Hints:
This protein is an alpha/beta fold. Helix content is 43%, strand content 11%.
Amino acid sequence: MTQTNRSSTSPLTPVLTKRWLSPKSWTLRTYEQLEGYTAVRKALAAHPDQLIELVKAAGLRGRGGAGFPSGVKWSFMPKEPVKPHYLVINADEGEPGTCKDIPLMMADPHSLIEGCIIASYAMRANHCMIYVRGEALHPIRRLNNAVREAYQAGYLGKNILNSGFDLDIVVHAGAGAYICGEETALLDSLEGKRGQPRLKPPFPAAAGLYACPTTVNNVETIASVPYIVNGGADWFRTMGTEKSPGPKIYSISGHVERPGQYEAPLGTTLRQLLELAGGMKDGIPLKFWTPGGSSTPLFTAEHLDVPLDFEGAAEAGSMLGTTAVMVFNETVSVPWAVMKWTKFYAHESCGKCTPCREGTYWLAQVLERMVEGRGTEEDIETLLDVCDNIFGRSFCALGDGAVSSITSGIKYFREEFLALCRKNAGEQDKPESALVGAAR
Length: 440
């Protein structure tokens, strides 16, 4: 795993991925040999409020997509526990293109567990749930084994390290629903209900799991906490940008020579990431890409130097999301790719709200008709109209994510959508890129 800075791609010392290539990196023995469980000793000797202030000072922001300041989120939890407090880890990694949390839990599960202990102590929570995507069987086994090791070593259970603090961790396997990546749908699923988003307010910090104060954090967010405790806020801020500090795991897939996980400071550009990943596969030029998975608006080759932090991506018209960088070369049809993503969202819509339930269904139908060469030019305006009726009107963010690739795809590649319609009208043949894309 490699880190980069804003000005070059010179390798720096890895942080989040530093143990990944060590022999049996997932075991407690290896973890302890490489500074594991040293941060928890420091944390348990401090006051919980000091840890919250430390995380605030470090500027750690949620790595699950929203980028909300983690220390601020922690501070929403009541100071005096009238009801039980819960920490819930969102490990339901279902965003197309996202693959950072599963390898982290595979290679270094104890970093997540140590982060859970520190975060739970800071928020006065004695119960932690790690909700893992059900299909990820191997990471679930690794995580369960790591939890057992932590209990046996005295890092979990009653009176952890003679601190007087108690914590129990439960690893829960989901059932493979993308909607359960939404924090309130995840909480309903944990309670044994059908996974559907809740109306907010009340927010989880006031009434979350079992109507008790709850904080939901991403795997990578919590795994970053032990490094902040050991290194300090100033050290953490030496990486990344002023408003988006720290290291980040970028998941690079698609038409690159070496797809995989690349750790780099926030603010790294795609140009730098492509250099790390060996460049475009077979030398075929870049056509379009996603900065944060299929729910983020597309970027083009013109956006190679956009800083991939929360502010930079937003200023350029997209979102950082989960930093799932999917790279597509010139052989791929944009309408075909957008259709594939839209079918996914139509399938994964929970059906609770009409805009998403009906809108994604019709978007998928129209796009499929266009890709098959049976569309009309009016279909493009129909797509945009349906997107407008979904965006900001659906119950949760799934609807917003479902339309982002369509609106941005038409914005940057309208001519490619029009070409499919003209073919139906007999004006010209389907473009070669659409043929290749459809064949994929």
